[in-house]
Amino acid sequence: MKVANNLFPALPARIIGLGELAENLWWSWHPSARMLFKMLNRRRWKESIHNPDKMLKDMPEDLLVAASLDDEFLAHYDSVLSQFKQYMEDKACSLLRKDCPRESPVIAYFSAEYGLHHSLPFYAGGLGFLAGDYLKECSDLNLPLVAVGFMYPEGYVSQRVGADGWQENVKFTLNREAASIARVLDDHGKPLVVKVPIIEPPIHVAVWKVGVGRVSLYLLDTDIEENDPWNRGISARLYVGDLEQRLRQEIVLGIGGAEMLQVLGIEHAVVHLNEGHAAFSLLERIRDRIVQGLTLEEALEKVRETTVFTTHTPVKAGHDVFPFPMIEKYFSNFWNSLGLDRETFLELGTHPEEPHGFNMTAFALRLSGFKNGVSRKHGEVANLMWQSLWSDKSAAEGPIQAITNGVHVPTWIEPKMELLFNKHLSPGWLDRHDEKKLWKKIDTVPDEELWKTHVWLKIKLFEVIRERARQRWSQDRVNPSMVIAGGAMLDPSVLTLGFARRFATYKRADLIFYDIDRLKKMLKNRWQPLQIIFAGKAHPDDHPGKMILQKIVNIANDPQFAGRIAFVEDYGEQFAQYLVHGVDVWLNNPVPPMEASGTSGMKASLNGVPNLSILDGWWLEGFSGDNGWAFGDDPVIGDRSLADAQAIYQIIEQQIMPLYYDISEDGIPLGWVQVMKNAIKQTGSHFSARRMVKKYAQKFYTKALIGA
Ligand SMILES: *Cc1c(COP(=O)(O)O)cnc(C)c1O
Fold this sequence. Notes:
Layout: E1 2-3, H1 17-22, H2 31-40, H3 42-47, H4 52-58, H5 61-67, H6 71-89, E2 107-111, H7 126-140, E3 145-150, E4 159-161, E5 167-169, E6 182-185, E7 193-195, E8 204-212, E9 215-221, H8 229-232, H9 243-263, E10 270-274, H10 281-291, H11 296-305, E11 307-310, E12 321-323, H12 324-337, H13 342-348, E13 357-359, H14 360-367, E14 370-373, H15 376-385, E15 401-402, H16 409-412, H17 415-424, H18 436-440, H19 447-474, H20 480-485, E16 495-500, H21 516-523, E17 530-535, H22 543-557, E18 565-568, H23 573-582, E19 585-588, H24 600-606, E20 611-614, H25 619-622, E21 628-631, H26 640-660, H27 670-684, H28 689-707
Parallel strand pairs: 2-3, 2-10, 3-9, 10-11, 11-14, 14-15, 16-17, 16-19, 17-18, 19-20, 20-21
Antiparallel strand pairs: 1-6, 4-5, 6-8, 7-8, 8-9, 12-13
Bound molecules: pyridoxal-5'-phosphate (PLP).
Pyridoxal-5'-phosphate binds next to helix 7, helix 23 and helix 24.
């Protein structure tokens, strides 16, 4: 198996390694590598929207030749390239095995989405970023893992908001030839095409590879000539609304993904399902074992012993249920090949409390020996939610364990903060970031330096927002009130709350508008004003979610709010970086216990942006009393939103505002900076993807390997 090469024919031999660098996302979490592309040509780096593959392909040969003769550039090139080569060749033993060097992957990780970088639009939200951060950390820890997902050319939703505040989707198609992905070729050098077993008429998939450091991610793409239009559309977008097409997506991801690994000759002993979308892959695992001569019972047992399943949400809509006739249409051949009858097969995916269809989560839970929720609280909630699958057990003795999510620190630490920590924690802190004692030294960072860094990041965020508003004004000729709604009047000296997430209704993006007059007083406070930046997308079929979004945009448009509410369009990875680094407080107020974990708050906290959050998900573990603010732990009788909104107002008025605006003679809010330090200290080690991946290895992978 090979991937297409010679993608950058114009590159001079002296800097040929730039091509290799551009094709591996390692560059995305190493600032020195990003700096190299920036040095190559600052304007073009910006124009490519930080996409080295596109940048190199668009660059005229004479500029590349000039770079290959520039001593300063070459010195940095040599240093970055040797760092990259060393990383890729490092044979450090993994957490799982003592026998170095590493052989073929041991774990196959399946996920319907991956949030790796904004140039690869294969994500909708938190689930995707969790998966993306997971792969990066597995690479850093040298864990032998291979990943499977989809190449969605149209991504999730490309968001535009009209003057009436309504979310519109603009057509967007990824240029596959100008992204850090490479086509996988067959033995004859032609694009590899894999046929998805069992489905008639057949579906074919092409395969792309993404290098995530030392981890390979393979992406399935149905948009090829061999398929009819309906089949071609299977991988067009994430989470298509049409139920049958959604089922076909999951068949392709699970069964097609398993087949693809087989065709590529990638052996794996353990499967890890990131959410239930790929659970059909387990059917292929069972079938393989039956073909090898095991009985059905033995095959099921073997699969259970070697399968890990992570459930990610208590929200009902997050669990796909397919009507039985639809399952029958696609699987009637399959259950015969397993020696199963219809009833037994369908029972594997039936939730006893709602026996109306085939539930992918119930199916995955039954067939996985290792299962977990994504925070302590979510573990408890999931055991309650699925208790009827284990009628012999109480919820307290349920088999779903808890491993709290974490974020990939090298990806989410802002480079200026990284430098500051280099100076005061230790120069090698990033390599040892899950050591708790390292973070104690945050207290030695001079207040002024931390505050100045924060202010610099805040100004940078406001510049980005203003530039976007300017473009909407000058290029798209939107009306002036939309320019204001886009954030043109935001003021960097004002206390700034950030709220960005998917506009699912349970996240209650509009909660802070519950008592409009009380909020207005805060926004328009002459001496201690408040402003709020919103961003996020609603699922295209989520009408109520779009209504909430519209309400907020209309408020942002309204002169009564004095330009202090902003809505920034088309939230994605790039803007998320600016936002979690640059606001003063990160706001989160979903209906508990719906937030299984939440990760954006961890990204903010790591960079010294404290959370104002409801006690749900990770914050139940993260809140220590002095590293942010919490509310909503009391049981509420009556109107939950009223109680939560009042709690938010009270905290802002009585705690946040006075602390933020209590500024020393040198212009530094000393009390505030202490909260920032506490936030950093308590997030850095514990809510890292490193701690998380180590836990998966220790609790699940090592044990599953015994069963393999
Ligand atoms: C981290 C991240 C998320 C996840 O946010 P939560 O709502 O906290 O789970 C979603 N979108 C983007 C762009 C992110 O970076």
